[in-house]
Amino acid sequence: MSSAPHLSPPHLSAPGLSVEELSWGHPLPGSGWRQLFSGFSLSCPPGQFLVVIGSNGSGKSTLLNLVAGTLRHGAGRIHLGGRPLHRLRDHQRARWIGRVMQNPLEGTCPGLTVAENLRLAERRNRPARFAAGFLISAFGGIHPNGGDRRRYRELLGELGLPLADRLDEPVGQLSGGQRQTLSLVMATLGSPDLLLLDEHTAALDPRAEATVMALTDRLVRQLGTTALMVTHSLEQALSHGDRLVMLHEGGLIGDWNAAEREYLEPAALRAMYGAAIVAPQSSSAADGSSAS
Question: What phi and psi, each to the nearest 5 degrees, are found at residue 185?
Fold first, then answer.
């Protein structure tokens, strides 16, 4: 019988994220080069829920892609605990990183049922079979048995999700909010050490957004995982996470811990967008964070 889905804290202290002296750029259309990150450093202490904001082109999603390995940096180091993420292959990083994308269609397989999607997510944490040949091993074991179905029903019911009664329904028939909820649960199966959230509520209506954010807060706290969330919503930025940072053109221009964030207003943050003035040093640096 398969082991139960893990949604309890996997360890007393999840590994922290460290980005050191990161450099990355890209060619411009026609000719030229844009150097976005140059000697960029940022550390996220173990178990911290870090929210990242900034104007378009500031480097928010690029930073997440560099951490996830979707993009390769030119220089620098990215560590999760003692693991050098920049040296690992995709299937190795998948063991420790969960990710939810902006588009609800990207995190699930529409032709498979809710239960089959959850089964696939569990298999992500079996690196030997994945490395040997994902397609062969996955299609040989995506069909959940009776025990799997009971566990999934209990898991979703414990989280208060109506999907517990829709395990046999193809995911393609779910609403965008329901699919994103499922994507979030799938990303946290196996208790990843790092959770990456890339504007994961941007495509949702306000009601679905509130549901997904409430679930996000609950899962991050319950797992004790280190989390990095990119958002364009200033309301989310001011009400979620332990720490808030603002990027501009690949640099850090604001860094506030939860207590300091209480004094911020959306209008004040909006006025900072595109500014090149570095905000006063936050006490979060005393917790091991730094940026340049």
Answer: -65, -45
| Rounded distance between C-alpha atoms, residue 209 and residue 191, angstroms | 23
- Give me the residues of the chain with pLDDT under 50, please: 1-4, 8-12, 127-140, 277-292
Q: What is the pTM of this model?
A: 0.85
What would the pLDDT profile of 258-277 be if each residue is shown by its tens digit?
999 999 988 888 888 866 54
Q: Domain boundaries in the chain?
A: 17-109+192-287
With beta carbons less than 8 A apart as the criterion, state whether 24 and 66 touch.
yes
Tokens coding 165: 């009664």
According to DSSP, the β-strands at 83-84 and 243-248 are unpaired
Query: 217: how many CB neighbours lie within 10 A of its CB?
Result: 15
DSSP secondary structure of 63-97: HHHHHHTSS--SEEEEEETTEEGGGS-HHHHTTTE
**Which strand ranges, in their side-by-side order, compose the sheet holding 33-44?**
33-44, 17-27, 75-80, 83-84
CA distance 52 to 231: 6
Q: Domain 17-109+192-287 carries which CATH code?
A: 3.40.50.300
- Rounded distance between C-alpha atoms, residue 50 and residue 240, angstroms: 9
pLDDT of residue 125: 63
Q: Give me the residues paired with residue 247 across strands.
A: 54, 252
Q: What is the pLDDT of residue 132?
A: 41
